[in-house]
Backbone:
C-alpha cells in the first residue's frame, strides 16, 4: 500500500462520510505543484504534506483540515495560487491554507518579528483552531526529519520548537504532539543527555517491562475481586519530562517515579476514586506524590488522578487513573473535539463545555487593544515560569522569571557576570535588582577588570535570582586565596559590626554563635562568601533585641469574664447597623485588645481589654462581646537610630526618606549636620519592625548616590 492509500484507509476508518476522492484530488494537485522539488533528505517534496496530513488523520481531523494539510505549502512554494485552490476546493480549505502560509512566513527569534508572529499565530488560532493544528503537524514532521539539516539549523529549529510549538501543543492539551515535539527538540539540543536517558530506558527495558507486567497483573486481580472494570496498561515514556524532573528535583533515574508507570482507564469518575483507594490499599503511597486533577482540572482541561506508590519489590511505581473520556482529552486536547463523538455521530456536550476555554482567547482579543499588550497577555499565560529577553544583537535568552541583569550577565558569560557594573534595559540605565520582563532588550555595562561584589549574594537585596549566577559568584570567591579571604572577611565583618552599632562585641563569641571555633574561621567563611554579612547582622540584632526587650508586663489579674457570644468585626464608625462608640475612660486605639459593652439604647461601648471598668464590671452577665479591629493589626516596632555619612548634595534627605518609606517604615525624627569637608551626617530614628528590615534599609541607603556609609548608632 502506498502512503496515500494508507491515509485514505485511515480516514475512512474513523469517518466513512469523508469524501476520500476529494482528498485524493488534493494530493494530486500537491504532487503536480511540487513536482521536481525535493526535501533536504532528497525525498520528493510531496512526502512532507502527505505526512502532515497523516498526523492530522491520527487526530481524526475533519476533511477540510486533511485537504488543507496536503496543500499547505502550495501557494508559498509553487506557481499554483491560493485563488486556484479556492476555486478547486472552496473557501474553507483556502482559508486554512492561507492561515498556515501566513504562520510559515513568520520568522521567530528576532525581537519585533517574534512578538508579531506570536500574535498572528494566536489571532489565527482564535479564528480557526484548525490552522494551528495543521501548523503543529507541519512542525512535527519537520522535527521528525530534522536530521537532514545542518547542525546550526537543527539547533535553531529545535529551540523554537521547545519555546513556541511545544508550549502551544500543551496549551491546546495535545499531549501526543507535545511529547513528541519535546523529545525531538531535546534530542537535538542536548544530544548527550538525551541518549543517556534513552540508553538507560533501553537497558532497563526488560526489567521494567516484567516489573510493570507484574504490577498490572496484581492490580487487575484486585480490581476483579472488587468488581471494577478497567483497562490497565503501561505508559509511553516521555524523555523530556524525565529530563526536566531530573533537573528540577536533582534526582537520578532511580528516583524519577514515572519511569515505572501504569495507567488505568475506567468508565466513570466515581470509579477513579474507587480504583485510587484500591491502589493505595494494595501498595503504600509515597507522600507528596498525589495529585487530583479530576477535582481540579489543569488549565488545558486535563483531568486525571496521579499517585506514586511503593510497588512490587519495593520499587516506586506511578499510577494514573482517569476515565476514557478524560483520556481522550488528555491525549488529544482540543483535537478531541473532532475525535470523540457519542454513538450516532453527535458531539458530547460535556466535551464541548470543556473546550470552551478557547473562547477566552477570543475575548482577550477583543479586550486588549495594542499588539504588545496582547502578546504580553498571552506570554504570561503560556510562558509563565520563563522570561524571554533580548541581547543587543536580538538574540533571545530564556531565563527563569525573576531574573535580574546580573543573572543575564552570567548567562551570557561568567566573565561578563564578574565584570558587570551596570545595565541598560531598553536603552535606559536600570538598577541591578530590576526583574527582567519578557521582551526587554538588555545590555550589560562592564568594567575592564574586577570581580563580583559580595552584596550580590545578599538575599534581601534581590540582586541575583538564578542558582546558576549565585554559584558562579561563589566560585569566584572560592578561588581567592585563603589568606586573602580571611583578611577581607575580617575587614568586612568589622565594618558591618561598626555599621550595626555592635563594634564592642567579642569577635570569638560571635564566631561561636555561628558554630565556628574562632573568628579566623568565620572571617574565612565570609571571605569565601559561604556566609553573608546579612545573615550575621540579622542574627546579632535578634540576639540583642531579645536581650534588651523589656520583660513582658505582668498579666493583669483578670477574673474570668463571661464568654464572648459573637466575634464582631469592627471598623471605626461601626459595623452594619451596630452603633458603636469609643469609651472615654480608656480611649482604645487600633492595635489595642478590645471588648465591647452593650448598653441599653446607647449601642456598644468599646473598651480596652485591660480597662479598669471592664475588670470591675464583669458581673454584667451576657453584655460583653469580643471585638477586634478589622485589618488594623499593628506590628510591634522598636526605635533604631541610624547615622548616614554622605557628600552633601541637594535631595539627599528626600532620597533617604524615600528608601525608608518604601520599606513601610516610619521615621520618627531626622536631623542633618554639614561638616567642613563637604560631608553631611544625617541622624534618623526609624521605627523598625524586624532585623531584616534594618539590614535592608542600611544596604539600600548605602547604594544611594554620594552616600559614604550608613550604620546603626548603638545605645
Ligand atoms: Mn510544511
Residues:
Amino acid at each position: 500500500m502506498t502512503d496515500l492509500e494508507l491515509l485514505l484507509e485511515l480516514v475512512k476508518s474513523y469517518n466513512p462520510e469523508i469524501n476520500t476522492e476529494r482528498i485524493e484530488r488534493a494530493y494530486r494537485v500537491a504532487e503536480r505543484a511540487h513536482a521536481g522539488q525535493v526535501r533536504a533528505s532528497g525525498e520528493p517534496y510531496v512526502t512532507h504534506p502527505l505526512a502532515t496530513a497523516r498526523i492530522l488523520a491520527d487526530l481524526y481531523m475533519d476533511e477540510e483540515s486533511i485537504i488543507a494539510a496536503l496543500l499547505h505549502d502550495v501557494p508559498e512554494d509553487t506557481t499554483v495560487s491560493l485563488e486556484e485552490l479556492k476555486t478547486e476546493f472552496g473557501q474553507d480549505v483556502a482559508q486554512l491554507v492561507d492561515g498556515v502560509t501566513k504562520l510559515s512566513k513568520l520568522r521567530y527569534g528576532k525581537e519585533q518579528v517574534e512578538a508579531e508572529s506570536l500574535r498572528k499565530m494566536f489571532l489565527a488560532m482564535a479564528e480557526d483552531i484548525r490552522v494551528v493544528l495543521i501548523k503543529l503537524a507541519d512542525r512535527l514532521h519537520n522535527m521528525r526529519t530534522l536530521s537532514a539539516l545542518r547542525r546550526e539549523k537543527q539547533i535553531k529549529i529545535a529551540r523554537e520548537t521547545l519555546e513556541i510549538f511545544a508550549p502551544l501543543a500543551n496549551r491546546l492539551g495535545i499531549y501526543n504532539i507535545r511529547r513528541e515535539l519535546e523529545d525531538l527538540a531535546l534530542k537535538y539540543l542536548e544530544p548527550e543527555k538525551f541518549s543517556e536517558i534513552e540508553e538507560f530506558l533501553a537497558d532497563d527495558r526488560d526489567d521494567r517491562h516484567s516489573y510493570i507486567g507484574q504490577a498490572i497483573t496484581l492490580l487487575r486481580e484486585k480490581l476483579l475481586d472488587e468488581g471494577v472494570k478497567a483497562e490497565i496498561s503501561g505508559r509511553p515514556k516521555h524523555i523530556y519530562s524525565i529530563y526536566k524532573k531530573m533537573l528540577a528535583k536533582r534526582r537520578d533515574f532511580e528516583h524519577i517515579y514515572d519511569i515505572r508507570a501504569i495507567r488505568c482507564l475506567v468508565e466513570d469518575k466515581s470509579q477513579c476514586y474507587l480504583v485510587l483507594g484500591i491502589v493505595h490499599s494494595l501498595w503504600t503511597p509515597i507522600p507528596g506524590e498525589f495529585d487530583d486533577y479530576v477535582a481540579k482540572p489543569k488549565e488545558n482541561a486535563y483531568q486525571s488522578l496521579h499517585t506514586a506508590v511503593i510497588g512490587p519489590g519495593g520499587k516506586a511505581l506511578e499510577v494514573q487513573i482517569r476515565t476514557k473520556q478524560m483520556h481522550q482529552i488528555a491525549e488529544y486536547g482540543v483535537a478531541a473535539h473532532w475525535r470523540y463523538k457519542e454513538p450516532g455521530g453527535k458531539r458530547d456536550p460535556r466535551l464541548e463545555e470543556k473546550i470552551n476555554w478557547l473562547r477566552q482567547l477570543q475575548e482577550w482579543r477583543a479586550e486588549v487593544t495594542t499588539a504588545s499588550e496582547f502578546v504580553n497577555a498571552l506570554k504570561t499565560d503560556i510562558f509563565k515560569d520563563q522570561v524571554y529577553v533580548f541581547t543587543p544583537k536580538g538574540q533571545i535568552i530564556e531565563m527563569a522569571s525573576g531574573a535580574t541583569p546580573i543573572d543575564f550577565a552570567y548567562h551570557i558569560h561568567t566573565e561578563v557576570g564578574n565584570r558587570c557594573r551596570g545595565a541598560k534595559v531598553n536603552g535606559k540605565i536600570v538598577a541591578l535588582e530590576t526583574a527582567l520582563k519578557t521582551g526587554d532588550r538588555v545590555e550589560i555595562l562592564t568594567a575592564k577588570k574586577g570581580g563580583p561584589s559580595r552584596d550580590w549574594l545578599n538575599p534581601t537585596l534581590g540582586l541575583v535570582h538564578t542558582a546558576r549566577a549565585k554559584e558562579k559568584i561563589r566560585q569566584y570567591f572560592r578561588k581567592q586565596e585563603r589568606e586573602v579571604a580571611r583578611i577581607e572577611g575580617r575587614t568586612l565583618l568589622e565594618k558591618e559590626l561598626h555599621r550595626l552599632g555592635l563594634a564592642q562585641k567579642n569577635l570569638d563569641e560571635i564566631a561561636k554563635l555561628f558554630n565556628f571555633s574562632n573568628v579566623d574561621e568565620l572571617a574565612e567563611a565570609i571571605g569565601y562568601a559561604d556566609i553573608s554579612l546579612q545573615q550575621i547582622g540579622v542574627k546579632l540584632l535578634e540576639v540583642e533585641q531579645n536581650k534588651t526587650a523589656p520583660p513582658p508586663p505582668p498579666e493583669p489579674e483578670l477574673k474570668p469574664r463571661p464568654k464572648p457570644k459573637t466575634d464582631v468585626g469592627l471598623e471605626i464608625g461601626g459595623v452594619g447597623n451596630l452603633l458603636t462608640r469609643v469609651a472615654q475612660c480608656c480611649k482604645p486605639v487600633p492595635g489595642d485588645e478590645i471588648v465591647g459593652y452593650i448598653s441599653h439604647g446607647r449601642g456598644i461601648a468599646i473598651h480596652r481589654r485591660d480597662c479598669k471598668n471592664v475588670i470591675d464590671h464583669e458581673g454584667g452577665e451576657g453584655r460583653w462581646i469580643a471585638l477586634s479591629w478589622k485589618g488594623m493589626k499593628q506590628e510591634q516596632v522598636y526605635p533604631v537610630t541610624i547615622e548616614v555619612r554622605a557628600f552633601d548634595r541637594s535631595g539627599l534627605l528626600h532620597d533617604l526618606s524615600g528608601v525608608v518609606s518604601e520599606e513601610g517604615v516610619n521615621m520618627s525624627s531626622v536631623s542633618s549636620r554639614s561638616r567642613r569637608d563637604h560631608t553631611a551626617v544625617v541622624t534618623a530614628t526609624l521605627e523598625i519592625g524586624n532585623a531584616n528590615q534594618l539590614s535592608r534599609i542600611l544596604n539600600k541607603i548605602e547604594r544611594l548616590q554620594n552616600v559614604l556609609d550608613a550604620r546603626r548608632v548603638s545605645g
About this structure: The first helix runs from residue 3 to 14. The chain has five domains: 3-189, 204-340, 477-546, 547-633, 638-712. The first strand starts at residue 231 and ends at 234. The chain is about 50% helix and 15% strand.
